[in-house]
Design a protein that fits this description.
284 residues; binds zinc ion; mainly alpha
């Protein structure tokens, strides 16, 4: 029952965040979460009719209406149900992962779940905006930095001042695991230095300043060595998607893809599979 409630709540949050992402104009008229940017009743962009409540039910409305507007029959972007579904899955899979792999229970499970759900929802919103506009709002990077800071304060208070890498015991080989704060700062420094060097070497053609501004708070959130693997996974996933797009004729070699979503997927890889990945690697 609780899992179903979590999933439905996640769907609703996803519906809201998708509206925020779709209505955001790069901050030109209003900041990300301001009522001016997201206010107003939802309407069909094709015929302009205001939508009724039963047309706004996450996931269900889109499926029942066959992905079309009830009035004019215009197609409704699959991004709506997709964003809702991803958010619903974040709300279910994050606590499930913390429970099964980290073995946390009780209040610790709830607290860890809240931090990671908020972090992944922020990364998801960032991804939706980066895909649509090719920019990452500073406010989101700042939010991520605040989440990372309070997460470190919480971890230190609840679990002690050693680092709490998602790789568990396998993080020891990478050093800096004795101090929570040193590991987090090292993660931020790595993110900043790596993307700073990449931007300098490619003269800004490969990566944008937005990617650098994302790498620093993400590095602080994940700590060392988690940020190293999140970055590596992001490049592997990005290359796979880029090459597939080129093979399918959807993009040329000169085209570029926004990197933010791949960074979010890299962080998700470390969160969900990092421990098993290193465990498998060590045994191999
Ligand atoms: Zn319509």
């Amino acid at each position: 029952m609780l899992w179903i409630v979590l999933f439905l709540f996640g769907l609703a949050i996803g519906s809201f965040l998708n509206v925020v992402a779709v209505r955001y104009d790069g901050g030109e008229t209003a900041p990300l979460f301001s009522p001016r940017a997201i206010g107003g009743r939802s309407h069909c962009p094709h015929c302009g009719r205001t939508l009724r409540w039963f047309e706004l039910v996450p996931l269900a409305s889109w499926i029942l209406q066959g992905g079309r507007c009830r009035s004019c029959g215009a197609g409704v972007s699959a991004q709506y149900p997709f964003a809702e579904l991803v958010s619903g899955l974040i709300f279910v899979l994050v606590p499930w992962r913390i429970m099964t792999v980290a073995g946390a229970g009780g209040a610790l499970l709830v607290d860890l779940s809240v931090f990671w759900i908020v972090a992944f929802e922020a990364l998801f919103l960032m991804s939706l905006i980066d895909i649509r506009l090719g920019i990452i709002p500073d406010g989101l990077n700042l939010s991520l930095a605040l989440i990372a800071f309070f997460f470190a304060v919480f971890l230190g208070g609840a679990l002690g001042l050693a680092n709490h890498s998602l790789f568990g015991i396998y993080a020891a080989a990478f050093g800096l695991q004795g101090s929570l704060w040193l590991s987090r700062i090292a993660g931020a420094v790595f993110g900043g230095a790596f993307f700073g060097a990449l931007i300098a070497m490619t003269r800004g053609k490969g990566m944008g300043l937005g990617d650098l501004k994302l790498a620093i708070p993400l590095g602080f959130l994940l700590g060392w060595p988690d940020i190293l693997f999140a970055t590596g996974a992001a490049f592997v996933i990005g290359a796979a998607v880029g090459l597939t797009a080129i093979a399918l004729g959807r993009r040329t070699m000169k085209g570029s893809l926004p990197f933010g979503p791949f960074f979010a997927l890299g962080a998700a890889f470390v969160f969900f599979f990092g421990y098993q990945f290193l465990q498998w690697y060590v045994r191999f």
